[in-house]
Write a structure and sequence with these properties.
By secondary structure, the chain is of the alpha/beta class. The chain contains 23 helices and 11 strands. The relative contact order is 0.17. The structure holds iron/sulfur cluster (2 copies).
Length: 478
């Protein structure tokens, strides 16, 4: 089967239960953002302007568990910020598992290996030795770390830890191969760390998914290479979603300055071009999401937004109407369902009800639409069934060529930050203002949020677009 039977059945029975009860709106995935703090400062992080918070602004553990009960979504995507910074992340995962939820821990990957070492320390017995030896041999932990695991004290052995289970996935943010990914997260070495964390997770028996956002500058060939490489690491599934922007000022630029939307952001048309091969990828790789949503992304059909099915809860409450746009926060999920005028949002038959929705095709608005049959066409149920129950694509064959393709950045001496800074420090860059675009990093305080079952960077990409355009303009001019 493409996806584990237990998971598929849990989700299917949730849908059937609500269809039988004729529940008009219900939650499929809860996007839980327990905090907005992050250890990275990615260019274009969607939450950086919307929520400027720090560690003291967190959703208490009890509240996190209560909101999961309240909306009763079978799946919970724990995002943020970086959820592994949340001080009670282990207890949160344990509590959600006790509630019987499927959990996706959406992470930038940087702290994953530490959390898995904690797990190994807590469960260590002689039987753990082969795993430790393998991890050391593959340089995923050091000898010193292996010894620390072997000699863990009582506190470490009693600690609540994140254990592998069929009900949980690490969901690692990967936006491209090494050069691109490190550029986007603005830190060299993060791609390599993600790969090492994925390898370690697989050796320790965890399920691992990845999430990727596609932007205007995303190269489709690179996406394919990325899937091939991740598949060769035996990653269990991939979420891929188009980036989204709704800056009203850009709309204004179209009318006032006569610029074309595609000059500066990912339009529906461009999304469809980028996702033209999504169905083919769905055959080659374990892509999460229904085939109906894939058809929508490929431009073969329309869907109606069902943002209420993937609600977001964060420090301010239930965020409406969706993960991306904020027109208000509510104290309760039911309150949000009843008070929001949902008919104001989305795109119906190609016509945007709200101009901010015009170019949105993101999975948190439209993937549930495919599963819930909002724009049902004959054969859809069968398509979804066949996709879920069809055989799982085989891992792509590993090869040194593939590794070389994947590690195309700092590990081969092509450190983009040095390169970017050199370009930006040139007199020409000073003249055209590129330094100003880059200097945002200096003013950030590491307190952002992000993510989804897709992930972090699903929002405003204007800073990244601006930065890339200026770097590229400078290169051409030199
Ligand atoms: S996009 Fe994700 S990883 Fe990057 S700064 Fe934002 S929350 Fe952190
Ligand atoms: S179309 Fe997109 S931006 Fe608009 S409400 Fe739905 S998910 Fe949100």
């Amino acid at each position: 089967m493409r996806f584990p039977l237990a998971l598929t059945m849990k989700i299917a029975s949730h849908i059937v239960k609500h269809k039988v009860r004729k529940t008009p709106k219900f939650a499929m995935v809860l996007q839980l953002e327990p905090l907005h703090t992050c250890n990275l400062t990615c260019t274009g992080c969607g939450r950086i302007r919307e929520y400027s918070t720090n560690l003291k602004d967190m959703v208490p553990l009890e509240k996190c568990l209560a909101v999961a009960m309240e909306c009763d979504a079978p799946m919970v995507s724990i995002c943020g910020g970086e959820p592994l910074i949340y001080p009670k992340i282990e207890e949160l995962i344990a509590g959600l598992l006790e509630q019987g939820r499927v959990i996706y821990v959406c992470t930038n990957g940087v702290f994953m290996r530490k959390k898995m070492r904690d797990y190994l320390a807590a469960i260590y017995t002689a039987e753990t030795e082969p795993t430790l030896k393998k991890l050391v041999a593959e340089k995923l932990i050091s000898e010193k770390e292996a010894d620390a695991i072997r000699n863990a004290n009582d506190a470490a052995r009693k600690k609540v830890v994140i254990r592998p289970t069929k009900w949980m996935y690490w969901n690692v943010h990967v936006d491209g191969l090494e050069f691109t990914h490190d550029l986007i997260v603005e830190r060299e070495g993060v791609f390599k760390e993600c790969v090492e964390a994925i390898k370690m997770a697989k050796i320790c028996g965890y399920q691992v998914a990845t999430n990727t956002t596609v932007y205007k500058e995303t190269d489709v060939k690179e996406l394919e290479d990325m899937f091939k490489y991740l598949s060769s690491l035996e990653v269990d599934g991939h979420t891929i979603s188009p980036g989204y922007e709704y800056d009203a000022a850009k709309k204004d630029m179209v009318s006032r300055l006569g610029k074309q939307p595609e000059d500066f952001f990912l339009t529906r048309k461009m999304t469809r071009q980028k996702f033209a091969k999504i169905e083919e990828w769905g055959k080659m790789f374990t892509i999460f999401g229904t085939p109906v949503y894939q058809e929508f992304l490929a431009g073969k059909r329309e869907l109606t937004c069902t943002a209420w099915a993937i609600p977001t809860y964060n420090v301010k409450g239930w965020k409406a109407p969706c993960y991306l746009m904020t027109d208000g926060h509510y104290d309760g999920y039911t309150e949000m369902l009843t008070k929001v005028t949902w008919d104001k949002y989305g795109v119906v038959d190609g016509v945007a009800r709200d101009p901010r929705c015009e170019n949105c095709m993101v999975h948190c608005g439209y993937d549930p639409s495919g599963a819930l049959g909002t724009n049902y066409q004959r054969g859809d149920n069968w398509k979804n069934f066949a996709y879920n129950f069809g055989s799982k694509p085989k891992p792509y064959p590993a090869s040194s060529e593939l590794v070389k393709t994947a590690f195309n950045g700092v590990t081969i001496g092509k450190g983009h930050l040095a390169e970017a800074k050199a370009v930006l420090n040139s007199p020409r860059a000073a003249m055209n203002g590129a330094q100003a675009a880059f200097s945002r990093k200096e003013e950030t305080n590491h307190n952002h949020e992000a993510h989804v079952g897709s992930h972090c960077g699903t929002s405003d990409t204007s800073e990244r677009d601006e930065l890339l355009a200026k770097i590229s303009a400078n290169k051409k001019a030199e």
